Amino acid sequence: xxxxxxxxxxxxxxxxxxxxxxxxxxxxxxxxxxxxxxxxxxxxxxxxxxxxxxxxxxxxxxxxxxxxxxxxxxxxxxxxxxxxxxxxxxxxxxxxxxxxxxxxxxxxxxxxxxxxxxxxxxxxxxxxxxxxxxxxxxxxxxxxxxxxxxxxxxxxxxxxxxxxxxxxxxxxxxxxxxxxxxxxxxxxxxxxxxxxxxxxxxxxxxxxxxxxxxxxxxxxxxxxxxxxxxxxxxxxxxxxxxxxxxxxxxxxxxxxxxxxxxxxxxxxxxxxxxxxxxxxxxxxxxxxxxxxxxxxxxxxxxxxxxxxxxxxxxxxxxxxxxxxxxxxxxxxxxxxxxxxxxxxx
Amino acid sequence: xxxxxxxxxxxxxxxxxxxxxxxxxxxxxxxxxxxxxxxxxxxxxxxxxxxxxxxxxxxxxxxxxxxxxxxxxxxxxxxxxxxxxxxxxxxxxxxxxxxxxxxxxxxxxxxxxxxxxxxxxxxxxxxxxxxxxxxxxxxxxxxxxxxxxxxxxxxxxxxxxxxxxxxxxxxxxxxxxxxxxxxxxxxxxxxxxxxxxxxxxxxxxxxxxxxxxxxxxxxxxxxxxxxxxxxxxxxxxxxxxxxxxxxxxxxxxxxxxxxxxxxxxxxxxxxxxxxxxxxxxxxxxxxxxxxxxxxxxxxxxxxxxxxxxxxxxxxxxxxxxxxxxxxxxxxxxxxxxxxxxxxxxxxxxxxxxxxxxxxxxxxxxxxxxxxxxxxxxxxxxxxxxxxxxxxxxxxxxxxxxxxxxxxxxxxxxxxxxxxxxxxxxxxxxxxxxxxxxxxxxxxxxxxxxxxxxx
Lengths: 345, 454
Prior knowledge:
heterodimer, A: 2 strands, 1% strand, B: mainly alpha, 71% helix
C-alpha cells in the first residue's frame, strides 16, 4: 500500500513539474524572448488561463504527500524550512507579477512587474532543482528523524550539508535549463511570428547545454551516491527510463528545427517526467536519504496507517479522474495559438 | 513563554489571519455570482451578466491572493508544526489532501473558464462554470473546517503504537458533528462578507450618482443576502456552535464569557476588561442571569466558571479570547440591525433614495472582515492550550528543528511581502471599482477587451 502511494506521489510531483514547468520556463525566457508589450501580453495570455491551475498540482501533490507520508512531510518540510519559505515568497511574487501586470497600464510599472515575473520564475526553477538535488544527495537526519539545513555551509558534501552545495547547484542549473527549454517549446506552440521564432531559437540554444548537463548530473549523482544503480540492477525494467530520457532528448533535437514544436514539447514533457521517475526509481523505498544511512526515511517508517491509506485510494482515484477531466476540458477550450483581444492579459 | 513556540504561533496566526481576508470574500461572492448569473440567464438581462462579470473580476483578484497566501498555510503544517504533523497527519492528511484533489482543481480550472472563456462558452456553460467555482470554493471550506473540527473535537481516530494518531473511521472523521455547525456558521460569515461588500460598492455608486442600474442590483442582492445570512449567523448557527462549546469545551466558554467564578444565575458580560490578576471583570456592564439562560435555558442554572478547571487547562490568552468573542458577537448583532432596517427600506421602495442608509451600508464594508477574523480567533484561542483538544498541547507541536531565529526571519519576510500584497490589492480593487461594471477604457489601452467589445 505504501509503495503504491510512493508512486502516486511521484507521479503527482512529475505532473506538477511538467505543467508548472512550462509556465515557469515561459517566465524564464519572458524578458528575453518577448520584447514588446504586445508580445509580453501574448506570453501572459498563453499561460494566463492555466498557470494557477498548474500550481494547484503543487498543492495537491503536497496535500497527498502529507496524507500518505506525514512523517516525511514533517521531517522534510521543517528541515527544508528556509528554501521552502523562499519558494513560497517567490511563488507569491510571481503570482503578483503575472496578475498585477495585466491590471496596470503604466509602462514603468509594467516593466517592474515583468521583471518580478521573469526573475522569480528563474529563481524558482533553480530552487526546485536544488530541492531535488537535496533529496537525492541526502540530508543530515539524526536519530530523532529531524534535521535542519542552513541555506549553505561550505558548498561541500560533508556531514552537515547546506541546501546549496556544488551538487545541488548543478542540479538547480540543470533544472533551469530544462524548464527554459520546456517553456520555450510551449511558447513556440502557443504563439507565432517573431515571438514564436525567438522561442524556438532559445530552445535550440538550450539543447546542447541540457544534453551536457544531463550527463554531467548523472555522472555526479553516481559519484556521490553509487547506490542509485542498485534498483536498476534488481529490476532491469528500469533501463527503460534512461532510454526514454535519451530518446526524448533526440526527438527534441530533431523536431524543433523542423517546426514540429508540439512534438518537441511532448518530448520535453517526457524528458522531465522520466528524469523524475528515474530519480524516484533509484531512491525507492527510501523517500529521504540521510547522510548516515541508518537514519534514512523510507516508505515503511513514514507512511500513514493502513486503514487511512486504503480509504484514501478510493477518493484519490475519484479526485484524479475528475481533475484530469477538468484539465483536458480547459486545455481544449484554450487550445490553439493565442489571440489577443479577449479577456485579460 | 518559550520564544520559539511564540514565534511559530505568531507565524501561523499572522499568515492565517491575512490569508482568510481573501477566501471569506471569494466564498461569499461565489454564491452571489451564481445568483446574478442565474437571474441573467433566466431573464436574458445583460445588466445582470455585466454585474456578474464585474464581480468575477473582483473575485479573480481575491482568488489569486487567496491562492498565493494559502499555499504557505499548507506548507506551515510541515515547516513550523512538524511535531503536530507527525502526530496528527495520519488523520487530518485525509481532508487536506481531499481539499487539493476535489476543491482546488475544480475551482481553479473553472475559474479560468469563467474569467477568460465567456466568449468561447455558451451562456449555459458559462453559468455552469460559475456554479463549479462556487461548489469548489464551498467544498474547500468544508475540508478546512473538518480539519479544524478534528483539532477542536477529535473523533474517528485511534492511537497507533508509535503514539501517532491514525484514521479509524473515515465517516466519523469527515462527518464530525463539530464540523457541521462550524461550517454553517463559517460559510454564513463568508456570505455576510460577500453581501456587505457587494452592498457597499452598490451604495458607493448610488451615492456618487453613477451606474445606477448596476448599483441597484448590487444593493438589492447584497441587502437580501446580507439580511438572510446575518440572521442565520446568530440563529441557528451561532447558537448551536455556542452549545457545542458549552458541552465539549466548558473551560473555553467560561473564558470567552469572562466568567472567573462559577455561579447559579450567571450574568452575561456585555462590556468590561478581564482582569486575570484579580480574577474578575473590571467595570462590567452585565445583564443579570442572562448567561445561565442562554446556556441552559434556565435563569438560575449553574454555569461553571474558570475556577472549576485546573489553571493549566485554561486558554492561555483569556483577555484576547474574551475580546475576540465579544467583538464577534457585538458586530454580528449590529449586522442584523442595519440589514433589517435596509431590507425594510428596500421593501418600501425607499432604500435607493435613503442617502443616510446608503452611507451606513457603504461604511459597514470593513466590519464583516473584523467579525470573521474575531470569530476565528475565538475558535482557535479558545482551543488553547491544546493543539488537538485533549490529546496534544500546543507547546508540543511546533518544529523544534527550526530555531526561533529562523522562524523570526521568515515571519518578518512574510510581514514585508504581505504588506506589499495588501497595498497592491487595495490599489487594484480601487481601480476595478472606479472602472465599474461597464468599463471606461474603451480599447485605448486594450486591457479590458472583453468589456470593451460589448
